[in-house]
Design a protein that fits this description.
four-stranded antiparallel beta sheet, alpha+beta, 16 strands, eight-stranded antiparallel beta sheet, single chain, Jelly Rolls
Length: about 280
């Protein structure tokens, strides 16, 4: 897709698909790296279960739903944050200076839950409307195994809708958005072939459903980015709720220059496990 067309579609719908942005070889290496991460071979992960002698790769993968900050464990995951095909699209929709602040490795095996309607901007408060996710399919993502669903155009108002806790077993422990002027009939499934990327705006309402397949995974690597020219007032209290911070500096420059480089970088977040309902929701 031409850069002009890509930006036009992104601005209109809040998302765009980059078909086959990663080669099968690149995807294969990321899948192998995911196994190493889940086995704890690349470093400690908060909340990870101890290794069990004799466990197969399948057994290990099925223990996890999502690992946050895999780029802090793996040079390959870090390099993928800077993948040329993804960065080219990011600079088209964000601008020439782009920084990344989060990565998530999703391993949704059969029976694992999805995530309720939400906006990434609620969790990552850029507030400059530049927040963009690159959701890289590492398996074919289908309606059966839990692909993403989006509400096209729901980003345009730039409104952050209210959130509440829920008890829906279809979804993991994160909160759900509500009170928005759309319903499920407006939703569109985004099925992707492995290696394709869903690029979407931080205000776009999206969700995923459980993996209802009889076997297999819906693995994905999701990275979050924003304009390097903006501050990021992102911190989390000891209770796990967002609190104000002058500028979050646990970032990775992926394109252009960082106007705030004089502040240096700070190691703030550690790799951790996101609990699913089997692991307990730990509601406060």
């Amino acid at each position: 897709m031409e850069t002009t067309d890509l930006k036009k579609s992104f601005d209109r719908d809040g998302y765009v698909v980059l078909e086959q942005a990663l080669s099968p070889g690149e995807v294969g290496k990321l899948l192998d790296e995911a196994v190493r991460i889940c086995r704890g071979e690349l470093g400690a992960i908060d909340g990870a279960q101890p290794a069990v002698p004799g466990e197969t790769d399948e057994d290990v993968l099925r223990r996890y739903l999502c690992i946050h900050y895999p780029h802090k464990l793996s040079e390959l995951m870090l390099a993928t944050m800077r993948h040329p095909a993804v960065v080219a699209a990011l600079t088209a929709v964000i601008g020439e200076n782009v920084k990344g602040m989060q990565s998530m490795l999703f391993i949704k095996s059969e029976g694992k839950p999805g995530q309720a309607w939400h906006q990434d901007e609620m969790f990552i408060p850029t507030r400059d409307r530049s927040l963009t996710a690159a959701w890289i399919a590492l398996d074919d993502a289908t309606t059966e195994n839990g692909c993403l669903w989006v509400l096209p155009g729901s980003h345009r108002r730039g409104v952050i809708y209210p959130n509440r806790e829920h008890d829906d077993p279809k979804y993991d422990c994160t909160v759900e958005s509500y009170g928005f002027p759309y319903d499920d009939a407006d939703a569109v499934p985004v099925e992707l072939e492995a290696g394709s990327v869903l690029l979407f705006n931080g205000y776009l309402l999206h969700k995923s459903l459980p993996n209802t397949g009889k076997h297999g995974y819906r693995r994905a690597l999701a990275n979050h980015y924003m304009s390097a020219e903006s501050l990021l007032p992102w911190a989390v209290s000891a209770e796990g709720t967002p609190v104000a911070q002058a500028d979050f500096r646990d970032v990775v420059l992926v394109a252009g220059s960082d106007p705030y480089a004089y502040k240096g970088l700070e190691e703030v977040r550690r790799p951790r496990i996101r609990p699913d309902r089997d692991g307990g929701c730990d509601r406060k």
